[in-house]
Amino acid sequence: MAISASTRPKPYLEAEYCKGCLRCIDACPKDCIAQGTEINPATGVVPVVLDLATCNGCGLCIQACPEPYGLRPENERTVDAAGFELEDPAALFGPRDTTAPVPVDIPDRHLPLPASEPLVLKGTYASALGALLAGCRHVFGYPITPSTEGAELMAKVLPKLDGAFVQAVSEVAAVNMMYGCGGAGLPCMTFTSSPGFSLMLEGVSYMIGAELPGVFVNIMRGGPGLGNIGPEQADIKLACRGLGHGNTQAITFAPSTPQEMLDLTRLSFELSFKYRNPVVLLGDGYLGQMTGVVRLPSTFTKPGLPAWAVWGDRDHRRNLVSSIHLSEPDLEQHNLHLLGKYGAMIRDEQRSDLYRCDDAEILLVACNTPARMAKGAVEDLRRKGIKAGLFRPITLWPFPIDALKAVLPGVSRIVVVEASPGQLEDELRLALDRADVARPPIDHVQRYGGILPQQFEIVDKVLSLCPVQSGEVMA
Amino acid sequence: MSATCEFQAKDYRSDLKPIWCPGCGDFSVVASIYRALAAIGRPPHEIAFVSGIGCSSRIPGYTTAYGFNSVHGRALPIAQGIKLSSPELLVLAAGGDGDGFSIGGGHIAHAIRRNMDLTYIVMDNQIYGLTKGQLSPTSQKGRITCTSHYGSLEAPVNPLLYVLAYGAGFVAQASPTDIAGMAAIIEEAIRYPGFAFVNIQSPCVTYGEEAQQIKGLKAISESLAALGHDSADRLAAMDLAQHYGSKLHLGVFYRDPDPAPTYGDLVRDRQALLSQGALPKERILDLFIKS
């Protein structure tokens, strides 16, 4: 049978392969092909459009098409292009046929801790103890002043508790060891300081993407760059707004005493598993090194195993840890899921400490060690007859805006006290702006470079804003 | 560019007083570097000296060369950037064993295979001194430190062997047990046209073990020249390098008798080749319009 116009196959367009080079338009003698007007969302380019009403199946357009899968004869449509789909690891390694039982959560157990005398511990040790009481038995780290003592204590204690400390070759290696340990569903942590935390951020982003728990204790030191080993608070921006690339957030704690270093490290593990997300604990250089009274809790935790863990046995065969979602709609869904988690954190995990805020007209806002100077300043100012109070965010992200809103009506001025160029103030301003509340004027006392604001500097600043009217009054 | 007057070792010594512990091996390393630079005779402003982070990485500050204490583990990439942008400079990189073989270990292979004309001096003391005594990648297995209370479980790296295996054109080892020898080795390394590596066993008097102090090092040291080692024989060098940790071989392990062209040479050759018949440089945009 002769091949005629009626039996010759007409072309069809695989739009995802068309680069819009327009060579087919020139080739077509019947003007069946036109330049497209719509961007293909899968490729970002504009494919041609076909109108085959007058097509005689000459095939010149197919010859002209430089793409092997762009324009093809209609009768070859059955050749499935799916073989050339991007291989999504979620499809490659994801849920697979298995007769194993669906894994279930093995819950944590909370066992009584014998009562003991209060201890006097330095901040990094208190944090390490908090982690041990939370059931953490795996610590990965790299020496960096002023955080190393926490890792050193863990190196000494963990081998006796069936655990392990590994001194990684770098912070980059340490965070990825945490990725592995967290993926297995076990609590793990690191101690680091500002330059080391910078190095870890890529891994933090991957852990957030893969929804893995892990606790990062960052004893902040002077920066930028090598800086020095004095105390600073200039990683607040990094923890709250810059945890690596992509849509990342993590609960960020700012303890201000060795006791809080212990308590908040414990809590960090609980929340890290609750949300399947890393948690950051920001201390300053003094807090890491200073000693203080630490009372131990009445219980300690024996961790269970979450159902999602890639534990490496038959039951957990169907689990997948991955931060890759090659299909755009899948990744959009994943981001929506993460945003849902962040929303829940903002709703449920704000924490703060209010000191003499009930009638405060001057509200100091400070965290970490500077909050202790600010607390002294509040006392001093009260003695001078100024109604000062201290609002101390314990979570920097989510910022405890709900508690702040409650005290704002009586406040005539806010003074942010920090050892950073306004990173805490930025969090405060952003939170106030998002909450859409009227705010009083905001001033600040800032020191940089490894120096903390002193109590007298805070008092002087407040006095310069609102001079005492009628001599000293005893509060 | 070349020296117009004679320089003496003191011309390379800065006004800063080193804050290393008294007795630190690094004092004699910096003294040897002064002597080597004086022998070469390039004025201090034609020398760039960068280091990473660690006790030994303070060394550029004690010289009058341009230089700085850079990022932990990144002395070699920074040195390569300097050398590429200012090929006429004499570029030195230095650091400790932790800086070079742990966090910076990944950079060594690539600096070597690129054959940048640099001299890399590692002051190897088998310990992290600046952070007060943690395990280092060259610490012996079983070593007790504050991050290995019950003894290290990890075998040490052998920097000599792996630098030889990466294909470095010049590999030597020195020690403060022989300061004159150390200055001569550093001078020869700097004069070598290409990547030169000098491992210096420099004892840490504060956190180092007894066997790694000067006395202990002297007991295990052997001169490669006295052994009759042929420094043109890479395999013989690798054979000797296997004894790193148990013996202290001093001298040149390997010196490529036929040095390969450096990366800088190749870059300039490539530029010259591509400039032939090329458009005038001010018509740079034309390059993108029509190839």
What would the keywords be for this entry?
heterodimer; A: 475 residues; alpha/beta; Alpha-Beta Plaits; Rossmann fold; 15 helices; 34% helix; B: 291 residues; 10 helices
Name the largest protein-protein interface in this structure.
Answer: A-B, 18 and 21 residues
Beta fraction of the residues of chain A? 15-25%
**Average of the residue pLDDT scores of chain A:** 93
Number of domains of chain B: 2
Principal-axis shape of chain A = globular
* Strands in their spatial order, largest beta sheet of chain B: 2-1-3-4-6-5-8-7
Name of the top-level CATH class of the largest domain in chain A: Alpha Beta
Describe the structure.
The complex is a heterodimer of chains A (475) and B (291). By secondary structure, chain A is of the alpha/beta class. Chain A folds into three domains: 11-93, Alpha-Beta Plaits, CATH 3.30.70; 112-348, 3-Layer(aba) Sandwich (Rossmann fold); 352-465, 3-Layer(aba) Sandwich (Rossmann fold), CATH 3.40.50.920. Chain A is 34% helix and 18% strand. Chain A has 15 helices and 20 strands. The longest helix of chain A has 21 residues, at 328-348. With 291 residues, chain B is an alpha/beta fold. Chain B folds into two domains: 9-258, Thiamin diphosphate (ThDP)-binding fold, Pyr/PP domains (Rossmann fold); 261-291, no CATH class. Chain B is built from ten helices and eight strands. Chain B has helices at residues 26-40, 75-85, 97-103, 105-114, 159-166, 179-191, 214-220, 234-241, 263-275, 286-289, and strands spanning 47-51, 66-69, 90-96, 119-124, 170-174, 196-201, 221-223, 248-255. In chain B, strands 2-1-3-4-6-5-8-7 form an eight-stranded mixed β-sheet, sandwiched between helices. The longest helix of chain B is centred in the first third of the chain and has 15 residues, at 26-40. Chain B is globular and about 65 Å long. Chain A binds chain B through residues 142-145, 148, 151-152, 155-156, 159, 165, 167, 169-171, 195, 225-226, and chain B through 53, 69, 71-73, 98, 102-103, 105, 128, 130-132, 134-135, 137, 146-150.
